[in-house]
Write a structure and sequence with these properties.
The complex is a heterodimer of chains A (249) and B (253). Chain A is α/β, with parallel strands linked by helices and 249 residues long. In chain A, 39% of the residues lie in helices and 29% in strands. In chain A, strand 11 and strand 12 form a beta hairpin. In chain A, helix 4 packs across helix 6 and helix 6 runs parallel beside helix 7. The longest helix of chain A has 17 residues. Chain A is globular and about 55 Å long. The mean pLDDT of chain A is 93. Helices cover 18% and strands 43% of the residues of chain B. Chain B has one domain. Chain B contains 4 helices and 12 strands; from the N terminus they run ββαββββββββββααα. Chain B is α/β, with parallel strands linked by helices and 253 residues long. The chains are: A alpha/beta (249), B alpha/beta (253).
Chain lengths: 249, 253
């Protein structure tokens, strides 16, 4: 589904990704862990196509297409979902209007008919219930006045509504208490655990991985994947720290 | 006030950013009068856009409004013209009266679009609220010159003025000139002015959810100018004004 080969990228002319390679197949959950400054968020922004993140080498194929040749909104329509570490507040725009326009823009690019207002609201209600987010929150402006936990749950409701093929979730677990963590973890499983979907979890901690069991765990350091293992690698990191585990690499 | 037939000069503060040359042949003395009687409510909205009758020339609208004791006057306006357009409003408030104004200027070319208001709190306990939003591109210019005058005995006056400019391209500009002349001592007068560009973070967030650059810009502009119409209770009118502004933006996109 996602094939990253020898990816190099710079931010403000500073090299951050330095030859990163990673393959994610349909049906798999991958976790990327790594120390601060390793390039984790840069990877998610480069894959999302954020302006200012410049690819200087390598290739990324997504669902058989050249991901890097697409504009950010085309990547979304192709089935890529980027979960933000810090979801952005948009005063004056309601969640319902934002998500309905976003979904229908995606459908249009895919040659599908738009959803009617009624169809959309039913879908939104289902997904909000799944993440135990009050439907009234979706009538409010995008993320405005939401707590950290509410923003992350709202991100997962967005993911449920947009129904992507691949979700790249950048520290979706940060800022969540234990209960919210479980709700979000179960939400990820319900929405994304399917043979034709995949998840790339970017996280600092093992705790989200207790709910969303990864098939592979990668350590990102210095702009490259330096070690890959199974779920036990995350446990070893939690126990021994990055320095000790990477020393074995 | 310039003599009949003579053009105003840009040395005059109220015409400082005006396209005065474009006023040649325009009747400067044509003031429309609105008197809102004590206790009454008055609401009106106006659109200055590409209508056949305004296409050929400058559009100057001058309104002189008096609001009686305890009365309420609400005015809303969109200037989306291709040629110089100016809406000038002079308001005098009696005791306990309220004046609400929401204005939007939108457009490109090298056109000047402006609101000039003079709000006179002549008696105590009156309130006024003015919200102006300007969205421009090309070499378009949006102006808001807002004077608030509070008479010496007009205690408990509460007057607010907010201006925000959104510049979609380099070359566009806005001018905000708030002027407060306050002779009473127990009053609240708030004014704020900001100028900015589209929020890049919000734009990427929206793109990452699948919105095209055009749809993103439209939605953010809609949210931006929505402030000017929040106080307009008539939903149909609100949508009509919003539509005029967004149609203008769509021509540009």
């Amino acid at each position: 589904m996602l094939e990253i080969k020898d990816l190099h990228a710079t931010v403000a002319d500073k090299p951050i990704l330095k030859g990163l390679s990673l393959t994610v197949n349909a049906g798999e959950v991958h976790a990327i862990m790594g120390p601060n400054g390793a390039g984790k968020s840069t990877l998610s922004y480069v894959l999302g196509g954020r302006p200012g993140y410049e690819v200087t080498g390598g290739s990324v194929r997504f669902a058989g297409e050249d991901l890097l040749a697409m504009d950010p909104h085309e990547r979304a329509a192709a089935g890529l979902f980027l979960g933000f570490q810090y979801p952005v507040e948009i005063p004056g725009v309601s969640n319902v209007q934002f998500l309905r326009e976003a979904l229908n823009s995606q459908r249009k690019l895919r040659g599908q008919e738009p959803l009617s207002g009624g169809e959309f609201l039913k879908l939104a209600k289902d997904k909000a219930a799944l993440l135990r987010l009050d439907m009234d929150m979706l009538k409010r402006h995008v993320n405005v006045g939401f707590s950290g936990g509410e923003k992350k749950r709202a991100e997962m409701v967005q993911m449920g509504i947009l129904d992507p093929k691949l979700a790249i979730l950048d520290e979706t677990d940060s800022g969540l208490d234990i209960d919210a963590l479980r709700v979000v973890g179960e939400g990820i499983n319900a929405i994304m655990r399917a043979p034709d979907k995949a998840v790339l979890l970017i996280t600092h901690y093992q705790r989200l991985l207790e709910y969303v069991k990864p098939d592979y765990v990668h350590i990102l350091s210095g702009g490259r994947i330096v070690k890959t293992g199974g779920p036990d690698l995350a446990l070893a990191l939690e126990r021994e720290g990055y320095d000790a585990v990477m020393a074995d690499a | 006030m310039p003599e009949a037939g003579a053009l105003p000069t840009r040395k005059d503060e109220a015409w400082r950013y005006a396209a005065v040359e474009a006023l040649r042949g325009v009747d400067l003395d044509a003031w429309r009068t609105i008197d809102v009687a004590a206790g009454e409510n008055f609401r009106e909205w106006l659109v200055i856009a590409e209508q056949p009758e305004t296409r050929e020339g400058t559009d100057l609208r001058r309104l002189r409004v008096t609001i009686g004791e305890g009365a309420r006057c609400e005015l809303f306006a969109v200037i989306a013209a291709e040629l110089y357009a100016r809406v000038e409003i002079e308001v005098t408030l009696d005791r306990g009266a309220h004046f609400e104004f929401g204005g939007v200027t939108v457009g490109g070319r090298d056109t000047v679009r402006e609101f000039v208001t003079r709000v006179i709190h002549a008696e105590p306990e009156a309130t006024s609220n003015q919200t102006v939003r300007s969205v421009h591109w090309g070499q378009g210019i949006g102006n808001f010159l807002g004077n608030i005058e509070v008479a010496r005995h007009a205690q408990k006056t509460d007057a607010a003025q907010s201006f925000k400019g959104l510049l979609l391209e380099k070359g566009a500009s806005v001018n905000a000139v708030p002027q407060l002349e306050i002779f009473a001592d127990d009053v609240k007068c708030a004014h704020g002015a900001t100028v900015g560009q589209l929020d890049e973070q919000a734009a990427f967030y929206m793109a990452a959810r699948g919105l095209s650059p055009e749809a993103t810009r439209r939605l953010l502009v809609q949210a931006f100018i929505g402030d000017a119409f929040v106080a307009l209770g008539d939903e149909e009118a609100r949508e009509r004004l919003m539509q005029v502004a967004l149609d203008k933006l769509d021509q540009h996109l």
